[in-house]
Amino acid sequence: MIKLTGINKIYRTNEIETLALENVNLDVEKGEFVSIMGPSGCGKSTLLNIMGLLDAPSSGKIEINGTSVENMKDKELAAFRNKTLGFVFQSFHLINSLNVIDNVELPLLYRKMPAKERTRLAKEVLERVGLSHRMRHMPTQLSGGQCQRVAIARAIVGNPEIILADEPTGNLDSKMGAEVMELLHKLNKEDGRTIVMVTHNEEQAKQTSRTIRFFDGRQVM
Amino acid sequence: MIKKIICQLWNQRRMNGWIFIELVIVSFFLWTVIDPIYILTADKLIASGYDAHNRYVVKIGNYESSNGNYQAEMNTDSICKESYNRIIRVVRDLPEMKDFSIASSASFPNSGSWNGTQIYNDTADIKNDKYIHTQYYEFYLQDGSNMFRTYGMKDAFTGADINIPADAGTRQKVFLSEALARALFGKTDVTGQKVYSHDKSSYEIAGVFQDYKHRNYEQPYPLLVWVYNEIQGKTYMNWRYSITFSLKEGVDANAFEQRFKKEVMPLLKAGNFYCSGLESFEEVSYMYAQRSGVINQLRLKYSLAGFALLCIFLGMVGTFWIRCNARRQEIGIMRSMGASENAVRNQFLAEAFLLVTVAFVVALPVVFHQVHESGFFSSGVTRTILDMSYWQNQPVMHFCIVTLMTYIILLVIALIGTYIPVKRASHILPADALRDE
Prior knowledge:
Chain A: This is ABC transporter domain-containing protein. Chain A: InterPro entries: AAA+_ATPase, ABC_transporter-like_ATP-bd, ABC_transporter-like_CS, MacB-like_ATP-bd, P-loop_NTPase. The complex is a heterodimer of chains A (221) and B (437). In chain A, 35% of the residues lie in helices and 26% in strands. Chain A has 221 residues and is an alpha/beta fold. Chain A has one domain (30-42, 73-219): P-loop containing nucleotide triphosphate hydrolases (Rossmann fold, 3-Layer(aba) Sandwich), CATH 3.40.50.300. Chain A has a 6-stranded mixed sheet, with helices on both faces. In chain A, strands 2-1-4-5 form a 4-stranded antiparallel sheet, covered by helices on one side. Chain B is α+β, with helices and mostly antiparallel strands and 437 residues long. Chain B has a domain at 2-47 and 293-435. In chain B, strands 1, 2, 3, 4, 5, 6, 7, 8, 9, 10 and 11 form an 11-stranded mixed sheet that branches. The chains are: A alpha/beta (221), B alpha+beta (437).
């Protein structure tokens, strides 16, 4: 499903070079729920961004669903990201000037889908995450847990095969964190979606099918 | 998509409020700057009714009694006439000359002065004082002089040279411009009809010529042409009669001017008259525009327009620069959700388009009120007759054209001002944009 081969990522400034990822080779099978663990600054989020085509590796090869993304142009890359990948971020990354349903509809907007169909799908997923009664609320009017559920609804509304979650419970209390984890497990088990999650939480990592550990930009286990 | 953008603009109304107010003010200001530019430019673009290319006025002076070349015995009317005719014939016989004309002093385009009179189409109108005010030109047929051909004035119907009847010089016949014919008779096909002067003298219309502009930056004013057989001898006749001519096709104007100064000017000396120089019609036109202040007025308006546009441009770039930087994270979110660089750019451009359009619509009633109270820009020429075939003379059309021009200019500037910062902002990696919190 996701195949990373020889991925290196170097951040360069005028004075220093920082090696964020070094020769990462990784395979994620379809339907897996993989967690990535490691101390802060070890390159977990960078890896997730590269997997999600939000960042470009300095070298190495990325294949998703058997498609090599190296030579894709911006427009193709955007369309590929839109259809195949869903993102859940630690700080939710909702657009504060849009209400809940408009935030959820966002990925569908770039598919040129008719407005009615967009609204129907957005309502469906909001119902699924238990927020159908908050559709017209602005993100600033929601709790952290609710915001993350909106973000999950936005990640799955376009029915992507892969969900990439970057510390999805990092900003939530334990109760809300548990709710979000339950939702992710449900998406993995019931819908068969492939999930890659970056986490610091050992307990949550144990609940996933595989844990990959990182240290100083290298895969250690 | 547009509905979403409108919602988003409304939700960000605090951030958008300032640029909106700025756009409303600028829309009003720009309209008032574009209006005079439109009028002055549109008036200038109207066909002049003559051809200025390779046409010249010979400047003739006469020696003052204090001058060493002054000859007192030459200062009689008959000798002056003979002397002036001698000069005329030297000009007429120039090998490069195509047509020449002896006209009254003000009777050439952009001349320093202007002759006007009142004309009637019926003797009853004289009683009722229902006159048409017209400008008039005069020229003299002697020695083959033909003002129409020299200036390139054409017949209104055939577009060919104007036919001058053999008895035209008896001052019984006149030629009218289309504008004057329309003003007097409501039509231009009036050859053979009569017009009257204030003393009830009647004149038969010998022909109608295409509308003619005495001043390049003005609309054609009604013009009447009187023709005489010959000039009269006077000591000051150099002030009264202008000698103009056109060059043959293919003559190098620069070379001719050089030769004229070197070889011809010394020959143009008879009695107390002498040639003081040669001026092309183009030079005369430019000098008049300079003197009358039209050029300065246009420069001022263009500068104001340029300044306004620069302010708008910098304002838009600055505001959208700030907006784009403030919304880098949002751009990152959009990109991570599958928006291409183009989609992000288009959304921001659509926002700019909506802001400009709504602000412009809000400013329009204020502009309309201003026009209603103070009128459109006036170029300074008082007219008794307005030719309604020119759009700038039709109030509704005038308002619509200036409004459209202002809107298009404002929109183009706003879109460029938006495009530059948005292009930069959308060109970053989504991961980098998302890191900006």
